[in-house]
Amino acid sequence: MLFIDPHVHMTSRTTDDYDAMRKAGIVAIIEPAFWLGQARTEAGSFKDYFSSLVGWERFRASQFGIRHYCTIGLNSKEANNEALAEQVMELLPLFASKEGVVGIGEIGYDDQTAAEDKFYRLQIELAKELALPIQIHTPHRDKKKGTSRSMDVCIEHGVDPSMVIVDHNNEETVKEVLDRGFWAAFTIYPRTKMGNERMTEIVRQYGPERIMINSAADWGISDPLAVPKTAALMQERGIPEAHIHQVCYQNALAAFGQSGQMNEDDWLNPITIDQREKFSGSTVLRGGQDPRIDQIDSKIIR
Ligand SMILES: [Zn+2]
């Protein structure tokens, strides 16, 4: 089975992760722009980070046979530094229209402050202008209210729910998100509330329409193999294979494919891995390592 992980922060991960992900069947990933654990103090730090999302990280993924896409945005936490946020807003249009950018994200609310609301709304307008999907990070505190509010604001701005992926759902939020016509994404963190056991039950109860699963793996305790592992559990628990394919692959492609930047052909056509390649003079190889040079035909693995 082939998988897409539509929310994973590979900048924080290792080449071993890339290797294991490809072996587990992950063919494409989406890396949302987010918070790096420590607040940035200069607009230039955002600029370089966005550049690496559309440049170096995309290259690094390709060296392991994975297609890398990203969403570009100002995360809700750093929206609270208003002076800096204003400068970041000026950078966003330059990056959001680059190749491989499949949406504006991850944006939304953290503490649900006035500044977060302001920059969330400005970025919704930017997404509308560029006709890009929106990837919403819902708050961990006061989640139910924050999730409803995130959707209310999209509607207020005239965005069609089919262009909005609401992320980090749980049993309390899923019904409203689906009823209102939005995409409902779920993050599977190891040893937490939304483990893969509970995810299996959600898919059983709600079916596969407009639901997608991601790992949101980053610099915290997380698992970049969460999508294939959850798929395996679903299979074990009797969820039909067609439904697993929908929530672990097809829905992410349908939602983010609306950007016009993500096509199945990108990975179904044989991918050549040539680790002799360089990006601005840098390679993933270290002294004396043998480059991997081969071709993966995902149509065969499928
Ligand atoms: Zn994230």
Topology:
Layout lengths: L2 E3 L9 H9 L2 E7 L10 H12 L1 H7 L4 E6 L9 H15 L4 E8 L5 H17 L3 E4 L5 H14 L7 E4 L6 H6 L3 E5 L8 H11 L4 E4 L11 H11 L4 H16 L8 H4 L2 E4 L18 E4 L1 H4 L1
Parallel strand pairs: 1-2, 2-3, 3-4, 4-5, 5-6, 6-7, 7-8
Antiparallel strand pairs: 9-10
Bound molecules: zinc ion.
Written account of the structure:
It is a single chain. The model has no long low-confidence stretch (mean pLDDT 95). The chain has 302 residues and is an alpha/beta fold. Helix 4 runs parallel beside helix 5 (114-130), helix 8 packs across helix 9 (226-236) and helix 9 packs antiparallel against helix 10 (241-256). 42% of the residues lie in helices and 16% in strands. The protein has an 8-stranded parallel sheet. The chain has a single domain (3-294), classed as TIM Barrel (Alpha-Beta Barrel), CATH 3.20.20.140. The chain is globular, with a radius of gyration of 18 Å. The longest helix is centred in the middle third of the chain and has 17 residues, at 114-130. The protein has 12 helices and 10 strands. Bound molecules: zinc ion. The site of zinc ion has 6 residues, from loops.
Summarize the structure.
The protein has 302 residues and is α/β, with parallel strands linked by helices.
The CATH homologous superfamily is termed: Metal-dependent hydrolases
Major sheet characteristics: 8 strands, parallel
Radius of gyration: 18 Å
Q: What is the CA–CA distance across the termini?
A: 6 Å
| Strand runs, count | 10
Helix segment tally: 12
Question: What is the CATH fold-level name?
Answer: TIM Barrel
Q: Per DSSP, what share of the residues sits in E-state strands of 2 or more residues?
A: 15-25%
Bound molecules: zinc ion
SS-based structural class?
Answer: alpha/beta
Query: How many domain modules?
Result: 1
Named CATH architecture: Alpha-Beta Barrel
**Name of the top-level CATH class:** Alpha Beta
Side by side, the strands of the main sheet go 1-2-3-4-5-6-7-8
Helix content: 40-55%
Organism: Rhodocytophaga rosea
Family: Belongs to the metallo-dependent hydrolases superfamily.
Protein name: TatD family hydrolase
Keywords: Hydrolase, Metal-binding
